[in-house]
Amino acid sequence: MLAIVTASAISFALRAQNILTSIKPIQMITLEITKGISTPDVLLSNNISPHGYSLRPSDLKRIERAKLIIWYGHNLEPFLEKILLKRRNILELSELFGLKSQEKHHVDKFSDYEHDHKNHDPHFWLGKKPTIRVAQAIAYKLVEMDPENKVRYLRNLSNFVDTLEHISAKIDSQLKPVREKGYYVFHDAYKYFEKDYALNHLGYFTIIPDRKPGAKTLMSIRTALLSNKAKCVFSELQFPPSLVHSSIKGSAVNVGVLDPIGSSINVENGSYFRLLQSLSDSFSECLMK
């Protein structure tokens, strides 16, 4: 009997250590749910954007070893779609929002990707409600795989939701004084965050970070900046700021830097909440100048 119990414990211990998440924000959220039980791994390292990424041989080996893979889906990580088609124990988070990667075709075309990205914002972790929905799905999947730790997963989920509510209220108070101040962002990634805190988003340089904006877009932004309609323009930590800097020449607009994936934050207990707070601080500091 002891041998059976021990074998079962070892089996899950090995399985739990092979939870692979696609990107850092998903890893951060998953860590809050597996706290005290296991530590999820992540496929993309700190300063790598999922936009335009190509899998390496070492990535394929990690995917093969994983017992559970948690990813968003086509809109965010199209490079994973083909290899995950026939794998079991996949948690595709986009399905929670009415999307399913396997139903899409010609996913390598820029026009299709841009259309999907514009209509279905994949940056769910920047919004309170979609993040809670995702955390619940992760917790329930883990309970299904590891019923012995059901109580711990559900307790972690409850604590996660409570902490997120608290942080959201704090951020709401912090950003209230700058709600009317307009700004531009480099990448159209902040819809959830902007809706949650009623921010005055004027526009963006590009939908897809790896694709340069057209002349019409740049001219429109330039005109708005010279007429003092925007208080701030934000670049992103993962991409060269040259485009943003060249666009603000001759204007009095402030420049800030946003880090939507928490590339400068170590993954540990509470790191997801530090990502949100860091983003709020960046908005507040630039818009308050």
Task: Give a quick set of tags describing it.
four-stranded parallel beta sheet, alpha/beta, 8 strands, 289 residues, 2 domains, Rossmann fold
What is the CATH superfamily classification of the largest domain? Nitrogenase molybdenum iron protein domain
Stretches where pLDDT is under 50 for at least 5 consecutive residues are: 1-11, 101-117
CATH C-level of the largest domain? Alpha Beta
Number of strands: 8
Main sheet makeup:
4 strands, parallel
User: Overall pLDDT, averaged?
Assistant: 84
Helix/strand layout:
Blueprint: H1 2-16, E1 19-21, H2 24-34, E2 41-42, H3 57-65, E3 68-71, H4 81-84, E4 90-92, H5 110-119, H6 128-145, H7 150-175, E5 182-187, H8 191-196, E6 200-206, H9 215-226, E7 232-236, H10 242-247, E8 254-258, H11 271-288
Parallel strand pairs: 1-2, 1-3, 3-4, 5-6, 5-7, 7-8
Helix pairs in contact: 2-6, 6-7, 7-11
In words, what does this structure look like?
There is one protein chain. With 289 residues, the chain is α/β, with parallel strands linked by helices. The chain folds into two domains: 2-168, Nitrogenase molybdenum iron protein domain (Rossmann fold), CATH 3.40.50.1980; 177-288, Rossmann fold. Helices cover 47% and strands 12% of the residues. The protein has eleven helices and eight strands. Helix 8 (191-196) links the parallel strand 5 (182-187) and strand 6. It is globular, with a radius of gyration of 20 Å. 37% of the residues are buried. Residues 1-11 and 101-117 have low confidence and may be disordered.
